[in-house]
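User: Structure tokens for this complex, please. No commentary.
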Amino acid sequence: MAGSSSDQTFDVASLVEDFDLNRIGQYVLVILFIGFFLAPLETGIMTAFKTNRAVAETIPLMPPLAEGFTLDNMTFALNALSGAFFNSLFMAIPATIGSVLFGSMAAYGLTMVDWRGQMGMLVLFLIGIFLPYQAVLVPLARFWNNIFPLASMIKPLFVAAPILQDYHANLVPLMITHIAYGIPICTILFRSYYQGLPSSYVEAAKIDGASITKIYRRIILPISKPMFGVVFIYQFTQIYNEFLFAFTLITGSDTPEAVVTLILPAVGASTSGIDFGIRMSAAFLAALPTLIIYVAFAEQFAEGLKSGG
Amino acid sequence: MGTTDTTESTTPATEEVGWETKVRYFLNNDLVRSSPYWGIPFLLMGIAVYGGIGFNTAISLTDARGLQQPDYTNLDFEMYTQVFESSAFLSAAQNNLVLLVVFTTVCLLLGLFLAVLLDQGIRNENTVQTIYLLPMALSFVITAQVWLWLYNYDVGLMNIITRGIGIGPIDWIGNPSIALGSVIFALIWQFSGYTMVVYLAGLRSLPNDQFEAARVDGASTLTTYLKIIIPQLKEASVSAAVVLMVFALKAFTFLYSLTGRYRPPNGTDILATLMVRQAFKLGKWAYSAAIATYLLILALGVIAPYLYYQYRQGSL
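Assistant:
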């Protein structure tokens, strides 16, 4: 707002104005904060490529030099995490698709119709977003372990399937849990989008006698493509990064079905303390999938956060 | 909508409406026809969220612990009084309150400051925003590892800085009176980009001419922000504050990941970590379910006024 003149004209006056003290102060602050947000991550990445000696003797911000450089930590971390990467993606991708689809359907159902109970139902969805998951952890553990042990029921199917092992069956309850608890946020994200759509599309289709399903498939789905992008990116990041459900439903970080976030706090730890070269390598690798998505789709991610929190 | 109108207009013409017609109208009703769309997700979510809460409450009224099955014939509120009288709960609640207040306040202020800074027509504004928001894309498990390294006593960056300015090495995580502050600082680093984005969206939705008007009146940029712009960001502040406060209540992952054990660093135990430890380390199911209920009530205490406020604003 205040400085919009800077990128419009080439006249000298505005260029000079650009260099006043205020402007310089602003850019100094911007750069300082870039340092504030990036320095912690930078030290992590630098440390990942350093030998133990370099880790102990050099400043964390400095890049590794000549004999201080090593790829051993990365290789070790990659070995420690490779199975977990498969588990994380095997669990997170279907869980994301499931919750996004259900969220879109629910939002469509809720915005299509006008009825009195709608506000009440909306409130129920909203509370589902803010729910502290601790309030359902004990029931979740009981449900999947004692009442409905789905994992052990479907194990034979997983033995027969190619690529998969029987222990991958333990990821299915986690997947379903993520779908169920992801529905509220996805619904609210889609709802705010559908409310912004002009109602004339749907009205016209209704007059033409199109069924509710046809309106959804032919009109709503195609025009909500951008929103699908936003919700998918948001939800995938959330599920991939999630820890508490995985911690509750998967027995330990040393089990073969453990996901990435479950293993990371244990990688590189020994009785003599933490090997930070290895730990930082593992953290960097674990962050890579979400980092790539974030850099490629930063705008969509910000959009999801803005309305979802 | 449309269907109710037709029902009313056709009723007088046919006098007596047969049940078949009524059923047909009912089945043609938008609500009923759209029910598979909202019904299935609602059912799944409802079982998970409200079934879960109900089940949790039921367990909290029993004495279940260890391998002993919950006995639903003998229900009482004993666990709730037991929890409330334990010193671990009270100190966790106290830490939680400090975390909630300090974390939320600083995040809001820093986020507002960053949003105003980026609103000055900074070049490459989008890239800068992407960098400021980057920590939010990372898992708490990952950021906890990074901060563990920064806070390392011997060679961590934070102590290299403190030695440099002569206040000596500080035991950031190990000293119980500092640890909570260190955790809050790290979480502010992770979340202030989020509040910035919320405030930026609020700033962008304000009409541009207010600035011009204030300028004509001779107000400085600072006065304009303090007196005119910031008061209008109330809605953004409220919604960001709710998200931050609820997060502060349920924060578990960051604290767990610092140690990789059920017990977080000394001096940083909060309700969420206490609850998970009582349940999954000690097997005190009923006891931990009662802690979880307290946590839920606190969260509802934050959400309910917010939802009511939104409802009154007509923005639900």
